[in-house]
Design brief:
Elements lengths: L8 H17 L1 H4 L3 H55 L5 H7 L17 E6 L5 E8 L14 E9 L10 E6 L4 E4 L8 E9 L12 E4 L3
Antiparallel strand pairs: 1-2, 2-5, 3-4, 3-6, 6-7
Helix pairs in contact: 1-3
């Protein structure tokens, strides 16, 4: 059941004023005496001082906050140009920037070339199509790429003899997620697809080649 006394102070102010005024005006009809109302009117007197003081304090606090916020904004507005000068000044060291409490720019650490190699397996389910699946040699039971690798470079040669080296290979794609589906021309049916793979970093640094994978292209 809702309380008959309002919660918000402004609503309580209106309610209590009406309550006391009506009660004092109708003491006999309500079966009350002035003595019954004495504690209520005394408490009302204290409230009549406290409530306006609170309202004034809240208004003053809001005004003070606005003044503070404006002062801070103006203060920051003159600090930032000076900090930009300090950041651009060649004579200001990182140690001095740290002592000032301003940003010390960190040079990104080089990722470096991948050190492991992909393991490729070839599935030959469809005609003139092969599915290449790859995992990392360091974690062959997981699908995750090695740290610092964006994907694999895929190179291949189609023919009856394996490639003698990189010069015999054709670049196919960089694939970021296994598997990769390769499609072939009708003239490739019955020939062997030789696949080489290596991991590549976001900056283009390449890891070692993985073991060659090969499979006959279904005609």
């Amino acid at each position: 059941m809702a309380d008959y006394i309002p919660g918000p102070d402004a609503n309580f102010q209106a309610w209590q004023s009406n309550f006391v005024t009506y009660a004092n005006a109708n003491l006999a009809a309500l079966g009350l005496t002035a003595a019954d109302m004495a504690p209520v009117t005394a408490a009302q007197s204290t409230w009549a001082t406290a409530f306006p003081a609170h309202v004034a304090a809240v208004a003053a606090a809001k005004a003070a906050k606005q003044t503070k916020d404006e002062a801070r904004a103006a203060y920051v507005a003159v600090i930032r140009p000076l900090v930009r000068r300090l950041q651009a000044a060649p004579q200001v060291s990182d140690a001095e920037r740290a002592a000032l409490g301003i940003t010390v720019r960190q040079e990104p650490s080089p990722i470096g070339a991948p050190t492991t190699s992909p393991i490729c397996t070839i599935e030959c389910g469809a005609r003139l199509q092969q599915t290449l699946r790859f995992v990392d040699s360091a974690t062959p039971t997981r699908k995750a790429k090695p740290q610092g690798a964006i994907g694999v470079e895929i190179w291949n040669k189609v023919g009856n003899a394996p490639p003698a080296g990189e010069a015999d290979l054709r670049f196919v794609a960089v694939d970021t997620n296994s598997p990769y589906v390769m499609n072939f021309d009708s003239t490739d049916g019955g020939k062997t697809n030789y696949v080489w793979m290596r991991w590549v970093s976001p900056t283009g640094e390449r890891g070692p080649w993985g073991e060659q994978a090969q499979a006959t292209i279904a005609a």
